[in-house]
Please model this.
Amino acid sequence: MSIELETSKSAGRHEIVRRATVLNRLTIGWNVIEGIVAITAGVAASSVGLIAFGLDSGIEVSAALVLAWRLRQEQRDGCQLGADDRARRLVAWSFAALATYVSISATIDLVGRHEPEASTVGIAIATLSLAVMPVLATAKRKQALALGSQAAVAEAAQTNVCTMLSAALLVGLVANAALGWWWADPVAGLTIAGVAAWMAVRTFRADSLEHTCC
Model:
């Protein structure tokens, strides 16, 4: 009876890891496209907000790749506490790097009164992201909690942050395009930097979820 129970648990966890892996691959694919479009549009419009958003997509890809490594470790050797903690710290450092770079760039643009051009492409990608990210973040958090992985929860939180950043970016881009409020773009960038810094601290200190897999 105990052998059957263990087999059932193992099969159930294997399915959870498989679903988490599928969501992880979707995250990587979406953010690669989103990042390329956002950075290209940002450079064309000289928009620090758009460039920051594209860089955030790149950071999310790196975090997703870290989680992909974490999931691969479990598929190969079973869940290991050390691997999960290393993955979580790498995600936290990615947030910190983003916050540092964007805060400096946005401050320079704000002080220098740099006026970006309107970007229809930027508005479109921010709107699309605002529709996609909440669905993806909810699904990923559900699987992360089932895994009992702090690294997976941190990476899911990063996707949720992308939702907030999409909203901030959209407001900034629309304000600049419709009202000529040039300062809305660097303010959107500073908002992105602030949220990223908050998530860095939160992820470094993550201790609310028990490592149920290890």
Residues 1-8, 208-214 have pLDDT under 50 and may be disordered. The chain has one domain: 2-204. The radius of gyration is 19 Å. The domain at 2-204 is CATH 1.20.1510 (Alpha-lytic protease prodomain-like).
